[in-house]
Design a protein that fits this description.
peptide transport, disordered C terminus, mainly alpha, protein transport, 2% strand, two-stranded antiparallel ribbon, Oligpept_transpt, 21 helices
Length: 500
C-alpha cells in the first residue's frame, strides 16, 4: 500500500506545484515575445506569459480558506468513497466556492497593519482578493481532495478480514503513506514540473477558470464573457445533477435490454450497466459517463482515443471470449464482479484461511480450495501489470534522453519556456527539505511497523522494498500523467503480494 499511496500523492502534489507555476502569471496580458512561449499549443493558448510579482500570496485569507477547503474536501471525498458509484469532489469545487468568501473577507476584515515598521509587520487584509491567493487556496484544497489510499488497508482489515486495527495504528499508516508523497514531490520536481513538456492537462482547466474569475473582459456584442458562460454552465450542471444524484438514481444506468428480458441471465450479462457489459446501456449521470476516463474534457484527444480503444477491446472482446470459452471455470462466477469465489461460485470465506495475525493457514486453504476471481476482475489485474511495463518502456523510449540530461543537472543549459523563467524569480523550497521529510517519514514508518508488527505484519525490509518500488515507478507514472492526464496505478494485488 505504501507504493501506490506514495505514487498517488506525488502525482497530486506535483500537479499542485505545477498549478501555481501555470497560474502565477494569470493576472495580466500575454507577452510580446511569442517565441518564448510554451512549445505545447494548449499551454500557449491558455496560460499568459507575464506575471505581477507584487501581489501578496501567503495571507490570512489564504491560510483560513485553504485549511477549510482542505479539511472539507478530505472529509467529503472519504465519506462518499464508499458509494457504489463514488462521488469525487475535486479541488475545482473549492476553487469556485472560495471566490465569494475571499471577496467577503477582503471587504469585511480590518486592513489595520500590526507591528508596523517592525520585522514581523503584517496585515489581516493586505488588499483585494487576488489570483495568487486563489491559486494557493486551491493547492490547499487539492492536497485534501485526493482520496487517502491507505484507508483501504483499514477498510479491508475490518470488512474482509473481520479484524480490528487501533485508531493510533490506522492514523500512523495514513500519515506515513501520505507524507511519503511530499518527499517524492521534491525529488522529482525537476523532472515532472519544470520541463515545458510536462504540462499536466488537468491543470489547464483550472488555469482557464482562474482567468475567467479574475480577469475583466469586455462582453462581445451578442455574446458572453468567459465568466458569464461559466456561471450559466455551472448553474445548469448543478441543477441537472439533482436528478441522477438524488431524485432518480436509476438515471445512472438505463439498461433497456434488461427491461425487455428481465429474467434472462444472458440479457443481464450483456445489458446491465452495473453488473454486466453494459451493451446498449445509457448513462445520464456524469460520474458514470466519465468513470473509465476521469475527465474527458481535460484529456488530450490521443489519450481519450487510446483509452476508448483499450476499454472497448477489453470489455467487449477479451472479457466475453474468456467468459464464454469458460477459461478457468469462468462461467461458474459472475462475468463482472470484484468478489472472491470458490470453485463452485460460492463466496469465499477469507477468515477461514487466516489466523489472528493475518497469516495464511495452508491446511485450511487446502480444505477450502483455490481462490477464484471473476473474468473481468482477473483481466483488470492483468491489464494493470501490463500497463506498468508499457509505461516504463514508453518513458524510456520517448523521454529517456531528457531524463538523462536532467539527471546530469543540465537544466540550465537547455531551452526553458517563459513560465519556467518566470518562476526563477521566486525562491524555491530547497530540495534538502524534501529529503529530510522523506528520511524522517521512512524512519517513522520503520518504527511503526516494528512496534505494531502484530497489526501490520510488514517487516523492515518490506518498507525499503515498498519505497524502492515507489521510487522506481513514480517518474514513469508521473510522466504519463503529466502528458496524457491518465494515472497508471499499481494494482493492489501486487502490494499485498509484496507485503506477505
Amino acid at each position: 500500500m505504501v507504493v501506490e499511496a506514495a505514487a498517488d500523492d506525488d502525482n497530486g502534489i506535483t500537479a499542485s506545484l505545477l498549478l501555481i507555476r501555470n497560474s502565477d502569471a494569470s493576472s495580466s496580458a500575454d507577452s510580446e515575445n511569442p517565441a518564448e512561449n510554451s512549445p505545447i499549443e494548449q499551454v500557449a493558448l491558455t496560460v499568459p506569459t507575464t506575471d505581477d510579482f507584487t501581489l501578496p500570496c501567503v495571507t490570512f485569507r489564504t491560510w483560513i480558506l485553504g485549511t477549510l477547503a482542505c479539511v472539507v474536501l478530505s472529509f467529503l471525498n472519504q465519506f462518499f468513497w464508499y458509494r457504489r458509484e463514488p462521488l469525487s469532489i475535486t479541488s475545482i469545487s473549492a476553487q469556485i466556492a472560495v471566490v465569494p468568501l475571499g471577496h467577503l473577507m477582503a471587504s469585511a476584515i480590518t486592513d489595520r497593519v500590526f507591528f508596523k515598521g517592525r520585522r514581523f509587520e503584517f496585515s489581516l487584509n493586505p488588499g483585494p482578493f487576488n489570483v495568487k491567493e486563489h491559486v494557493l487556496i486551491t493547492i490547499f484544497a487539492n492536497s485534501g481532495a485526493g482520496n487517502v489510499y491507505a484507508i483501504h488497508i483499514v477498510s479491508a482489515v475490518k470488512i474482509f478480514y473481520k479484524r480490528s486495527m487501533t485508531f493510533l495504528v490506522a492514523l500512523l499508516v495514513v500519515l506515513t503513506t501520505q507524507v511519503l508523497g511530499f518527499g517524492w514531490a521534491g525529488i522529482f520536481r525537476r523532472y515532472l514540473v519544470e520541463p515545458a513538456a510536462m504540462w499536466w492537462p488537468q491543470n489547464l482547466v483550472q488555469v482557464s477558470l482562474f482567468r475567467a474569475l479574475h480577469e475583466r473582459e469586455k462582453r462581445p456584442k451578442g455574446g458572453l464573457t468567459r465568466n458569464e458562460f461559466f456561471l450559466i454552465a455551472f448553474i445548469c450542471s448543478l441543477t441537472y445533477y439533482v436528478f441522477p444524484g438524488y431524485l432518480f438514481p436509476m438515471l445512472t444506468s438505463l439498461s433497456w435490454i434488461c427491461w425487455i428480458y428481465p429474467k434472462s441471465v444472458l440479457a443481464q450479462q450483456l445489458g446491465s450497466g452495473l453488473h454486466g457489459l453494459g451493451i446498449g446501456a445509457i448513462g445520464l449521470d456524469w460520474s458514470s459517463i466519465s468513470s473509465y476516463l476521469g475527465s474527458p474534457l481535460a484529456s488530450p484527444w490521443f489519450a481519450t482515443a487510446n483509452i476508448a480503444l483499450g476499454f472497448t477491446t477489453v470489455v467487449y472482446v477479451v472479457t466475453p471470449l474468456a467468459y464464454w470459452l469458460n477459461v478457468y471455470k469462468a462461467q461458474n462466477f459472475p462475468i463482472f464482479s470484484d468478489g472472491l469465489f470458490t470453485s463452485v461460485g460460492q463466496k469465499y470465506n477469507i477468515t477461514a484461511i487466516t489466523d489472528d495475525k493475518f497469516h495464511i493457514d495452508l491446511e485450511a486453504y487446502d480444505r477450502e480450495g483455490p481462490l477464484y476471481m471473476s473474468t473481468f476482475f482477473s483481466i483488470y489485474y492483468g491489464i494493470g501489470f501490463a500497463c506498468l511495463t508499457a509505461t516504463i518502456v514508453h518513458v524510456v523510449l520517448f523521454h529517456g534522453r531528457d531524463i538523462w540530461r536532467l539527471s546530469k543537472s543540465a537544466l540550465q543549459k537547455r531551452h526553458m519556456d517563459v513560465h519556467t523563467k518566470l518562476m526563477r524569480r521566486y525562491v524555491q523550497v530547497p530540495e534538502w527539505w524534501f529529503m529530510c521529510i522523506l528520511i524522517v517519514n521512512v524512519a517513522a514508518t520503520l518504527l511503526t511497523c516494528h512496534f505494531y508488527n502484530d497489526q501490520l505484519q510488514l517487516p523492515w525490509w518490506g518498507v525499503f522494498l515498498a519505497c524502492g518500488v515507489a521510487f522506481f515507478f513514480t517518474l514513469p507514472v508521473g510522466v504519463i500523467a503529466a502528458t496524457t492526464n491518465q494515472v497508471i496505478q499499481l494494482p493492489t494485488f501486487a502490494l499485498k503480494c509484496m507485503a506477505t
